[in-house]
Amino acid sequence: MLWKTLLLLLFYYSAHATVTHKWNRAMLFPAAQRFKRSSAAFLNPVLQNSLEDVVLLYEFLLAELDIDKSQRITIKDEELASLRKAAKFDTICNEIIPKSITEIRRLSSMLSSYPRVLKKEDFERTVLTMVYTAYRAAQSQGHQKDAWAESFVSLYKALKHDLMFPYSKEPS
């Protein structure tokens, strides 16, 4: 009986840890979870898997982006836009990253209390959200400009904290 109870507790703990892990990931970028269920095209789109990918992402951002009135992001350079990685970039920018100030503030809030180092896809998505937020701040005026700028600073602080995470703990 004791073994059955112990096995049941271990199974419960394992199942709870798995659900909690998936729940935490869904909390940062819930659109990524919805997108995965609806399409097999990109199960977990990530742009940066190598140094060349990092350089390519930089080229995408440097090549000038077009953000239309419906907030759809496209790469203006046709040659770059035709690359396979550009399709992933499009998916992440237009289907996954948050675009409303409310969603971005929710993300910033979650990141401010995130208990561990971000996974590379979450870090990448946060950086792209920050780029989008900077664009919106530059295009806005008055109170809205302040709200977008405040969101940008919050995302910056969260990324800085993530980069410093292993060094921010007190030595034991």
TrEMBL record:
Keywords, comma-separated and alphabetical: Signal
Signal peptide from the UniProt entry: 1-17
Pfam families assigned: FAM180
Domain of life: Eukaryota
InterPro entries documented for this protein: FAM180
Protein name (database record): Protein FAM180A
